Amino acid sequence: MASATVTPPPTIHPVPVHPAAPENADVTVTDPALVKRAVKAAALGNAMEWFDFGVYSYIAVTLGKVFFPSGNPTAQLLSTFGAFAAAFLVRPLGGMVFGPLGDRVGRQKVLALTMIMMAAGTFAIGLIPSYASIGVGAPLLLLAARLVQGFSTGGEYAGASTFIAEYAPDKRRGFLGSWLEFGTLAGYIGGAGLVTLMTALLSTEDLLSWGWRIPFLIAGPMGLIGLYLRMRLEETPAFAAELEKAEADRPKVPLREMITGQWRALLLCVGLVLVFNVTDYMLLSYMPSYLTSELKYDATHGLLVVLGVMVLMMAVQPFAGALTDRVGRRPVIAAGCAGFLVLSVPALLLIRQGSLFAVALGMGALGLLLVCFTAAMPAALPELFPTKVRYGSLSIGFNVSVSVFGGTTPLVVTALIGATGNMMMPAYYMMAAAVVGGVAVWFMAESAGRPLPGSAPAVEG
After folding, report:
1. Is pTM, for the whole model, over 0.90?
2. Is the pLDDT of residue 20 over 60?
3. Could you give the dihedral angle defined by the CA atoms of residues 336, 399, 314 and 189, in that order, rounded to the nearest 10 degrees?
């Protein structure tokens, strides 16, 4: 009787799995070249958004004279900041539209749409006639353009941070995400630097008659470049994997589920964004006007000091982002909250001394503390939410907090100083924000080096 031949089973070579991956989980291997393109495209859109903010903040006094009736300079400045703040009131609406849409049709498509709207709104401001030409129509058109900007921006930051986070490998998400805020600073420096140059080269009459339009008109070409870069990108691996999990007709996540189903993460998001944006807008948007209108500081020197602080922040930003990957997001954000709680009053007292050295030292200290947030938040915020609702939930939480607390900072602080006569109000406002941020940090979980919720581990290719 012939003996049976037994064929040995094939040898199976296991695929290396990320240490944080659950058993049998897939692993996403990222393409470094594609990640770099994604970071550039996302950061450029953020740079354009903040180019507008830099221009608007630094030229606020001039815009007040162009778009509002002559008379009380403080009233003009308040009116200008009121139009600035109005854009933030519609940001939650934009977030509620663009965020869920990004979870439904994809991040890349929505980010291209927000880029078009943002560029159009900024460009339109440069075409509006002055109050002297068309009367009350001028501020109304300014308000309309700002509302378009605000609505589109409602889907911009959450989408851009989500885009980078979902492309980045887990162990480098902090470093790569920090380039989003590097773009913010670069755009702000571009806008503020252009205004500073124009202020130095143009007479007051030329600046009021036509010079103020130039920075806004530049937004058109910038928007086309950003749109080109974003249209060339593929969808994020995390979103593509989420689509593969579902059938052809992917179920739509209700807006209510994005809020009630994520209530704890949303509360943490609001608290983190509050301290991030109150301090951000205080330093980068409000302080130039504070130096000029409240402290009667020389406008050109004041602008140059703030520009110098932003250059310092840019130099530190990537290193701080890498630090969040090594030591965690929580320690870095907590250090920023503690710093603002302890140093806001001393820093503002230095600024109020008025000498160039004292102003630079006080502003520089606040700028370095702000880096704790700009470096950590682009990674920490998307890490709060699962993939299927990340864009939508983050858009809602981020924009509600920015609208209520961040974007209103210049208006509220100007009004508080006017009502109380207390020139230390900016410091007290930042300290209060630091307390709220500290509470949020206390309750948040550490997420550095771990897979995004709802996504497979991502490793560098």
Report:
1. no
2. no
3. -130
